[in-house]
Amino acid sequence: MYAVELGEKKVMIVNVDGKLYATDSVCTHETADLSTGFLTGSVVTCPLHLSRFDVITGEAQNPPATVPLKTYGLKVEGTSVYVQV
Ligand code: FES
């Protein structure tokens, strides 16, 4: 997982089995940086209160977070990664 700032947004790029996905990197519960959490398959675990999110769908899988993560379209061209925010 790799966090980047795109304007006002903090977005993370996540490599799931060789395919890249982009989501907000700030947890929807409080302000933890999910890019410093733990990734298992496509599920990231928040380092602060351990809510889990699917980075492909954004779905919040367990409390305390209930709001899904925002996901973004992403495209790779050569060595460049473009995120649609
Ligand atoms: S800040 Fe992520 S679950 Fe609380």
Describe the structure.
This protein is mainly beta. The chain has strands spanning 2-6, 9-16, 19-24, 38-40, 43-45, 52-54, 71-77, 80-84. The protein has a five-stranded antiparallel β-sheet with strand order 1-2-3-7-8, with no helix packed on it. The radius of gyration is 12 Å and the shape is globular. It binds FE2/S2 (inorganic) cluster. FE2/S2 (inorganic) cluster (FES) is lined by residues 27, 29-30, 32, 46, 48-49, 51, 64-65.
Structure in a nutshell:
The protein contains no helices and eight strands. It is mostly beta strands and 85 residues long.
Spell out the blueprint of helices and strands:
Layout: E1 2-6, E2 9-16, E3 19-24, E4 38-40, E5 43-45, E6 52-54, E7 71-77, E8 80-84
FE2/S2 (inorganic) cluster is lined by residues 27, 29-30, 32, 46, 48-49, 51, 64-65.
Please supply descriptive tags for the structure shown above.
single chain; 85 residues; mainly beta; five-stranded antiparallel β-sheet; 8 strands; globular; binds FE2/S2 (inorganic) cluster
